[in-house]
From TrEMBL:
UniProt protein name: Mandelate racemase/muconate lactonizing enzyme C-terminal domain-containing protein
PROSITE patterns hit by this protein: MR_MLE_1
Highest taxon in the source lineage: Eukaryota
A molecular function GO annotation: galactonate dehydratase activity
Pfam families for the chain: MR_MLE_C, MR_MLE_N
Source organism (scientific name): Lipomyces starkeyi NRRL Y-11557
InterPro entries linked: DgoD-like, Enolase-like_C_sf, Enolase-like_N, Enolase_C-like, Galactonate_deHydtase, Mandel_Rmase/mucon_lact_enz_CS, Mandelate_racemase_C, Mandelate_racemase_N_dom
Cofactor(s) listed in the protein's UniProt record: Mg(2+)
């Protein structure tokens, strides 16, 4: 069996970290280990993987995954799991490309031919939101996601919630579905009020209505609203997910394939959720490799319901011209038609990475830094 001969990583704009694994026969695969705001930490973990896994059998993906998880004593968390994600996705891509089949064929085959997708819109005022939503309609989207609020105090004026309701109503008036992302920045006194106010406009879901660390608060909120509750981007393994399943206090899980341990782990998490009648809608405001990997999961996962994609998201636009099509030779695989993306039937991830562009743009790429919110009184608020 082919052995791993090289593990490389490339920091590329706007804020992504790509991984390439090559075996002794020259076969290769690409993965994505992006962890927004913590690029250098993940790069350090990947340096460790270089020293550990060169010479290992590239086919033994599960054995390598288990070695990362179990043989380092300290396990899990966003940094190690993101590094593992990049390695794991690349190994799946390598194996499937060597066999000349899509990854979904190694995961049991297709359960669908196309995948429902949504994209992000911003804007603080209803008119701004309307224009952005119309732009997404023109791109082929039928569903979007938007922030619920800007920074907000622990206990703020009730009127601070009114704009969230107005913006959701605006998008719904266009005939689009919309998810509302609380982003974990709203605390329970305000989250309860906002969930109640949004109900009549029937959003697809409310995302991270509270931070996932407040398990008991989410359990309480789940009894107070009929809106589906979604979260998961800050959960990093099936063990993190367990407490939300029994008892069931969420409706949609949003694991991030670049933060949770890659294809191997997200497939297991999806099966766990199916047993509890919970849908999967992976978080993915990331790069082309992460999106392609998510689409392979979507193709082969019965309880997958919708896929986030970062086409034209503000992170990309603010950083320059780089977008999900920048680093691939076949960006048409991400074309949206009537709210769906077709399942790619090419080998591996279904995309062909433009390695020349990756290497060129990685030479001067700087690590992306998260923003921050500081209140009028100088205290910090959730970003």
């Amino acid at each position: 069996m082919p052995k791993i001969s090289e593990i490389e990583y490339f920091r590329v704009p706007p804020r992504w970290l790509y991984v390439k694994v090559t075996d002794v026969d020259g076969n290769y695969g690409w993965g994505e280990a992006s962890l927004e705001g913590h690029t250098e930490a993940v790069e350090g973990a990947l340096d460790e993987f270089k020293s550990r896994f060169i010479g290992w059998e590239a086919n033994n993906i599960e054995h390598i995954w288990q070695s990362v998880w179990r043989m380092g004593f300290y396990r899990g968390g966003p940094v190690l799991q993101s590094a593992l994600s990049g390695l794991d996705i690349a190994l799946w891509d390598l194996k499937a490309r060597r066999l000349n089949v899509p990854i979904y064929e190694l995961l049991g085959g297709k359960v669908r031919d196309k995948v429902k997708v949504y994209a992000w819109i911003g804007g603080d005022r209803p008119d701004d939101v309307k224009q952005q939503a119309l732009g997404r309609l023109a791109q082929g989207f039928k569903a979007v996601k938007m922030n619920a609020t800007a920074d907000i105090d622990w206990l703020d004026a009730p009127a601070s919630l009114d704009s969230a309701v107005d913006r959701l109503a605006t998008v719904k008036s266009l005939g689009m579905d919309a998810g509302v992302d609380f982003h974990g920045r709203i605390h329970k006194p305000m989250a309860k009020q906002l969930a109640k106010l949004l109900e009549e406009h029937r959003p697809m879901f409310i995302e991270e209505p509270l931070l996932s660390e407040h398990h008991e608060g989410i359990a309480e909120l789940s009894q107070l609203t009929t809106i589906p509750i979604a979260l998961g981007e800050r959960l990093h393994s099936r063990w993190d997910v367990k407490k939300f399943l029994n008892p069931t206090i969420i409706d949609i899980l949003q694991p991030d394939i670049s933060h949770v341990g890659g294809i191997s782990e997200i497939k297991k998490i999806s099966a766990m959720c199916e047993a509890y009648d919970i849908a999967i809608a992976p978080h993915c405001p990331l790069g082309s490799i992460a999106l392609a990997a998510c689409l392979q999961i979507a193709a082969s996962t019965p309880n997958h319901v919708i896929q986030e994609m970062s086409l034209g998201i503000h992170y990309n636009i603010e950083s320059g011209e780089e977008d999900i099509g920048t680093y691939v030779h076949n960006p048409q695989v991400f074309d949206v038609c009537n709210g769906y993306v077709n399942v790619a039937d090419g080998p591996g991830l279904g995309i062909e990475i433009n390695e020349n562009v990756v290497r060129k743009l990685s030479q001067k790429a700087k690590p992306w830094r998260s923003g921050s919110f500081v209140a009028y009184d100088g205290s910090l608020r959730e970003w």
